[in-house]
Amino acid sequence: MVSSRPTREQLAAAAGTTIPDVLAPGLDVLFCGINPGLYSGATGYHFARPGNRFWPALHASGFTPRRFDPSEQDELLALGLGITNVVNRATARADELTADELRAGGVRLAEKAAEYRPRWLAVVGITAYRTAFGRPAATVGRQSHSLGETRVWVLPNPSGLNAHWTPTTLAEAFAHLRHAVYSE
User: Fold this and answer.
1) Which residue stretches of 26-166 are H helix?
2) pLDDT tens digits for 123-158?
3) Locate the Uracil-DNA glycosylase-like domain: which residues (predicted)?
């Protein structure tokens, strides 16, 4: 793992690497990114790139008592939260992934849901979700299907490149999920 900001060489070397899931049986929510970016691949932490709004949205929505640093990702387990990805390999951009990789990732997510039985799977990235699960008309929010006993929710991609969602509206989308998780 890289303890400070990765160098250009370390970022380049991170292409194709994988990072471990933050996962345990019986979580309340398993958050699922599209795939690790190079920054995450270089550091070994999910949603690690400065400017990614996952950690601020997680806190602003009430899932965490304070804003966690990506290096504190394992502390999520004590809160009933975890992190995985649709596709495991790190890339510079999500559009480098193939539709076949995304569909295979959907199969792996269904297997993880069956094995670990999280109450909710929250996929952060509507386009990746649509491809991975063959649901081209899906929208952000609660989905009509489940993975066994695991209910499915789609959140907007928290990447800073996703300008359609402001930090405030992103936190609101996460808060809608939080309300569903803890009111049912």
Assistant:
1) 38-43, 54-60, 99-116, 126-133
2) 999 999 999 999 999 999 999 999 999 999 999 988
3) 20-178
135 Cβ contact list (under 8 Å, min separation 6): 129, 143, 145
In a domain, 172, yes or no: yes
Domain span holding position 132? 22-183
Distance of CA 24 to the CA centre of its chain: 15
Q: What is the dihedral of CA 63, 113, 87, 182, to 10 degrees?
A: -10
How many angstroms separate the CA atoms of 142 and 170, rounded?
15
Could you report the per-residue pLDDT of 79-101, keeping only the tens digit for each? 999 999 999 999 999 899 999 99
Domain count, the chain: 1
